[in-house]
Amino acid sequence: RYFGGRAMRFLRDMCKRLYDKSQGDLQSYTMDQYKSDVAIYERLVDKYSSLGSALNQYIR
């Protein structure tokens, strides 16, 4: 799995939902959904960072 790409796609989707909400669809993206998405995104970023660190150790 390429977590960097997955994290970027997930962030893109979050931004789209926030944009839709900003355009007047106030019920489309609840605070609970947002908080859940942020937690998922942070886990994806952590996995991506861990893989990058492991790769750097391997290359050195």
Task: Summarize the SSE layout with pairings.
Layout: H1 3-22, H2 31-59
Give structural notes.
This protein is mainly alpha-helical. It has one domain (3-59). It is 82% helix and 0% strand. Helix 1 (3-22) packs antiparallel against helix 2 (31-59). The radius of gyration is 15 Å and the shape is elongated. The two termini are 23 Å apart.
Quick structural overview:
The protein has two helices and no strands. The protein is mostly helical and 60 residues long.
| CA(first)-CA(last) distance | 23 Å
What order do the SSEs take from the amino end to the carboxyl end, as H and E?
A: HH
* Mean pLDDT score: 88
Shape: elongated
Alpha-beta content class: mainly alpha
List the total number of helices.
Answer: 2
**Which range best describes the helical content: under 10%, 10-25%, 25-40%, 40-55%, 55-70% or over 70%?**
over 70%
Give a short account of the largest sheet.
none
